[in-house]
């Protein structure tokens, strides 16, 4: 195990992963304000929305309006999820900085989430990747259920390598290893990441850890020890996937920043401003903040 990275890129997924499962529609204005607050807090990579079927995920139906409403900064990458060419064609005019195709290491989850097999998903992604790269847009891929599946249970590391290889072969530049249901522990996280590292370079692999079993920070630490330097996180721990029942949100961004600050690892994020952004969206949703770091800071502020 080498030294920990000196710098980490946090991809803020709250506006997409965090909100997609909300039953009540969150207005476009609130989504836009949240994104504004997140970038003011120093986040430079934000998963902004997804171009998926509004029948499947109604909360993301205002994707184009969100992309039109945000006040863009040149130094922020605005990333959008795209499952097929229909989504890409809708996303392109909104000028995303990155498109993210999302596959799975589990056949069953692939069917539930995107209504096709792993092989079919790659066929759908291939023209998206080709078109995006030709347009100069970065392409990231997510590999869901890399540490376990709500339908199949254990997922072999070989399955992660297999999907990573398929993604690499069609030109996907970076893969995110996703613990969709938050069941992983550090050893599993390490195995899944190493499975992707058999195909991708260290700078092109990131971690996406849901915190259902409270293991996400431990998994991030294990990933840091491997040299991984990019992680997805969701402000106030918002979220869950509509097709992974019972899974809670992604690891809270505030918790990740606190950990990395403590380790002396640079993120560029101002924790206080981030806590304000999390308090804003939690207030709006009428939800207890899902970040214990945020709650501790808010309690301290209240005296
Ligand atoms: C993928 C599809 C569209 C396939 O859905 P399908 O039904 O197989 O698609 P289809 O091509 O047969 O089309 C059916 C209808 O959907 C429309 N359609 C088709 N494509 C699009 C599109 N892009 N945008 C808008 N509409 C679309 C299409 O026009 C048609 O409309 P109709 O004629 O019935 O009115 C569907 O299954 C879907 O939208 N699924 C939602 C997937 C999703 O958003 N899941 C959550 C995000 S993934 C996630 O959270 C995991 C991640 C990334 O965070 C990592 C982790 O933690 O694991």
Automatic annotation (TrEMBL):
Which parts of the sequence belong to the Pyruvate carboxyltransferase domain? 8-275
Name the InterPro entries for this protein: Aldolase_TIM, HMG_CoA_lyase_AS, HMGL, PYR_CT
Please provide the record's keywords in A-Z order.
Lyase, Metal-binding
Cite the annotated pathway.
Metabolic intermediate metabolism; (S)-3-hydroxy-3-methylglutaryl-CoA degradation; acetoacetate from (S)-3-hydroxy-3-methylglutaryl-CoA: step 1/1
Reactions performed catalytically: (3S)-3-hydroxy-3-methylglutaryl-CoA = acetoacetate + acetyl-CoA
> What Enzyme Commission number(s) does the record list for this chain?
4.1.3.4
Recorded GO molecular functions are: hydroxymethylglutaryl-CoA lyase activity
Class of this enzyme: lyase
Domain of life assignment: Bacteria
Q: Does the keyword Metal-binding apply?
A: yes
Q: Which NCBIfam families match?
A: PRK05692.1
Family designation: Belongs to the HMG-CoA lyase family.
- State the name under which the record lists this protein: hydroxymethylglutaryl-CoA lyase
């Amino acid at each position: 195990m080498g030294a920990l990275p000196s710098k980490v890129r946090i991809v803020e997924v709250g506006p997409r992963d965090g909100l997609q499962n909300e039953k009540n529609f969150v207005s476009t204005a609130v989504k836009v304000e949240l994104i504004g607050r997140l970038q003011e807090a120093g986040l430079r990579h934000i998963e902004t929305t997804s171009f998926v079927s509004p029948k499947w995920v109604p909360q993301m139906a205002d994707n184009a309006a969100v992309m039109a409403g945000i006040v863009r900064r040149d130094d922020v990458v605005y990333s959008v999820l795209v499952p097929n060419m229909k989504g890409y064609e809708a996303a392109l005019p909104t000028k995303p900085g990155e498109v993210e195709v999302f596959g799975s290491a589990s056949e069953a989850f692939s069917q539930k989430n995107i209504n096709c097999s792993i092989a079919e998903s790659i066929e759908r992604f291939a023209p998206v990747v080709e078109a995006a790269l030709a347009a100069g847009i970065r392409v990231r891929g997510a590999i869901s259920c890399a540490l376990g599946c709500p339908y199949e249970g254990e997922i072999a590391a070989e399955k992660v390598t297999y999907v990573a290889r398929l993604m690499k072969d069609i030109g996907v530049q970076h893969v995110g290893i996703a613990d969709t249901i938050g069941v992983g522990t550090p050893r599993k996280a390490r195995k899944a990441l190493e499975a992707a590292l058999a195909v991708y370079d260290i700078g092109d692999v990131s971690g996406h850890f849901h915190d259902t079993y409270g293991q996400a920070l431990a998994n991030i630490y294990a990933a840091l020890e491997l040299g991984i330097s990019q992680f997805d996180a969701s402000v106030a721990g918002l979220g869950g996937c509509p097709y992974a029942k019972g899974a809670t949100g992604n690891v809270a961004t505030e918790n990740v920043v606190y950990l990395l600050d403590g380790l002396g690892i640079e993120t560029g994020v101002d924790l206080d401003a981030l806590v304000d952004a999390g308090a804003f969206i939690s207030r709006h949703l009428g939800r207890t903040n899902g970040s214990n770091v945020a709650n501790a800071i808010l309690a301290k502020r209240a005296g």
